[in-house]
Amino acid sequence: MVSTPFRLQHANTTSLCLDLTLPGHTPLYSCMSPKTFKACLKVLRRCHLYYFSQLITPTGTHLVSWTAYRTAYIALLDDKRGRSLPHKWYLDIQATTTIPNSHDRLYDRYVCSPTAGPVISLVPGITTNQKNRHWLVTLDGNAAPLFGKQLTVQPKKDTCIIVHWTSDCLSSLGDVIRLRPCPGCDAHVPFPAANKYTSVEPRCTFTISLLRSLILPTLNERIRLNTTEVISPYSWADLRTKVVSYYARLSIPPDFSSSLLTVNGDTASPPPLCGSSGLPFPVVLPPGSHYRYYTDGSLINLGSPVVSMGWSWVQIIHDAGYLNSVATYAHGTIRNWPSSTRAETAAIYAALSVTPEDSVVSLYTDSQAAIDGLCSCASSTYTNSRFYYKTVNFELWASIECCIRKKRLSVLPVKVKGHDGNYWNDFADSLANSAHQSDDAFLLPEALISSSHNVRLIYDDIICESNPRHLFKAYYQATYMRDLLSLKRFQFTFCLTDQDDYVVDWDLTWFTLNYSPSHDASFQAHHASRHYTFKFKLFLDDLPLLEKLKITRPDLYIDLLTCRSCCLRNEDLMHLILCFK
C-alpha cells in the first residue's frame, strides 16, 4: 500500500487489544499481503469476509478448505460466479496462515480456541433478496432476540424492513420458538400498506441489518390473513449460541492500526458541554418544555492566512421578565476546516449539548445549509456511514445526531432572514462576531465534537472532516503539482548552464496535461481557459528545440548550429513560431 501522512486514530478510551486466541479478533488484512488485500478488497466485501475466524474450522486448528467454503457459502449467493479454482485472496491467506504440506493446519499464532458450535446451520440474511424473503432472527441493543418476516430488502444498503413478531423464548428456552404478531412497540416504524409487498397489513415494522441477521427456519413461511402463530422447529436454546456468536463476531470493530492510539477524554458518545468551564447553562425550564434558541456563526480573516470561526446561541423566553426576552447566551470559537456553515453548525451543536433531555427545541437560524443538515440528521439515510463521509463536517453533524438521539430531543429548525432587523438574530450575529477577539469565548475541543465514531481519520494532527475519497485525490494531485513546480524550469531560471538543470519528467508532464478538475463546481469557464493555457505552455516547454538540445546534449549539438529551415537565427521557441520558412 502507498504510504501517506494520513492515519487512523481510535477515539474511545478503552482500546481494543488484539487477542488472537478468541475468534473474531483478527482482521483479514493482517493475514494477507497488502498488495493482494488491496486488489481483492471488493471481492472480500462482496463475500462479506472481514475476520479470519470466518475461515477457521470449529476445532480452531485448520483453515476451511476451498471446496467446503465454496459449497457452504458462495453457492448461496445470488450473484455467484461458477468457479472451482480458489480465488487469489484465499491462496494468499492459505500461504500466510497455514503450514506447508500439512493439510491446511494453522501456524500456532493463528490457532483459536475450539468452539462447541451447534449442529444447526443458519444462513446469513445477506443472501436474501426481494424475490426470496425469509424469516430472520437478530439481536437488539440488549442482546435479546428479535424476530420478523422480511417485507422489503435493500441489498445495496445492507438493510431490510421486517414485520415484527414476538416470542416468549427467553422464558422457555427449551420449548420450540413460537412467534406471534407484535401489536406495536418502541421500535415500530410506520410502513404504508401495499399489495406488492404483502396482502396482510403489518402492525409493527422496523429496519435491521442484513449482515447482522440470520435466516430462521420455520414450519410455515408465508403470513396469511388467518395466521396468528408461526412455529420454528428449534428452541432458543438450540439457536442462542449460534446467533450470539455470529452477532458478536460482526460487532468487533476492525483494528486499522498496528498500535492502537487513544485520546484521553474521548468517549463513544459526545459528552455534554454544560460541565465545561466558560460555557453557561441555559435557563432550565420544567421537563418537556419548549426551548427557543437563535444561533449564528461568523467567519472572518484576521489579516493573515489564519481565519477565525465564531459561533453563538441566544436563549429566548417570552413573558418571563427578561430584558428583550433574552434569558441567557453563549459564544465561542471552533477550529479547522473553515467555512461559515461550520460556524453555524457549531452553534447548533453547542445549543443542543446544554439542553436538558426530553425537550422540544426550536432553532432559529439564517443559514439554509444548517437547516438542510439538520433535516439530514433526522432522515434514516443519514445513519448510513457512506452518507456520513460524503458530508462536509461529518464528525460535527454526527455529534449533533448522536446528541439528539441520546437526549431524545425534538428539534424544529426555523429559517429567519439575516440582517433584516430581527433583534434576536442580530444579537446572535454580534455575539458570534465578538467571539473572535473575546477572552471568554469558549473553544469547542476537537476531541469533543469528533467522538461519535470509534475511528477517525487524522492528517497532520488535524481530524479530517471532508469527504475522504476527495481528500485523498486532492492530496495526490497537490503532491504531483508540488513536484512539478519544484522543477528548475518553473523557478525563473533563464540561463541554463548545466544539462541537469533541464530534466523532462514525463510522469509529471502527462499528469498535468490529462488532469481536468471539471468535477469541482467552483471550476468555472474562465478557470478552464487559464488551465488549458497552462497545459499548452507546459507542452511547448518540453519541445526538443535546438537551443535546448545544445544544453542537454552538448556532445551532439554545437553552439554554431542555427535553425535548419532558414539558417539565420537560433532555434528557440519564439523563432519556431515566427520563422518565415
Can you walk through the features of this model?
- By secondary structure, the protein is of the alpha+beta class.
- It folds into 4 domains: 17-110, no CATH class; 125-250; 290-448, Nucleotidyltransferase, domain 5 (2-Layer Sandwich), CATH 3.30.420; 468-578, no CATH class.
- It has 16 helices and 16 strands.
- It has helices at residues 34-39, 41-46, 66-72, 88-97, 236-250, 340-353, 368-378, 385-389, 394-407, 423-434, 446-449, 468-485, 506-514, 525-541, 546-552, 573-578, and strands at 6-10, 135-139, 145-154, 159-166, 176-181, 205-209, 214-215, 230-235, 290-301, 307-316, 326-334, 360-365, 410-415, 442-443, 455-459, 462-463.
- The strands form 3 sheets. Strands 2, 3, 4, 5, 6, 7 and 8 form a 7-stranded antiparallel sheet that branches. Strands 13-12-9-10-11-14 form a 6-stranded mixed sheet, sandwiched between helices. Strands 1-15-16 form a 3-stranded antiparallel sheet, with no helix packed on it.
- A hairpin with a 5-residue loop joins strand 9 (290-301) and strand 10.
- The radius of gyration is 32 Å and the shape is flat.
- Residues 13-24, 75-80, 252-271, 492-496 and 519-523 have low confidence and may be disordered.
